[in-house]
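<tokenise_the_fold>
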Amino acid sequence: MKAYRIVVHDDRTATPVELVAEMAHDARVTEFCRQRLASSAYVTSIEVWSGARKLCQLWSEARQAA
């Protein structure tokens, strides 16, 4: 298992929420974050970090369309 830091940007809060998750691999954490984005109208983007390396930043569909 690998440890990841997940930074959730939410319209309801001024400060992003930081989560720590242990998952099997990079593809699994990315899929988890995509599901999180799809399930919330308030989450605007999610950053995924592995140590000091930013793996990706995912944006909500509404933000991508704008």
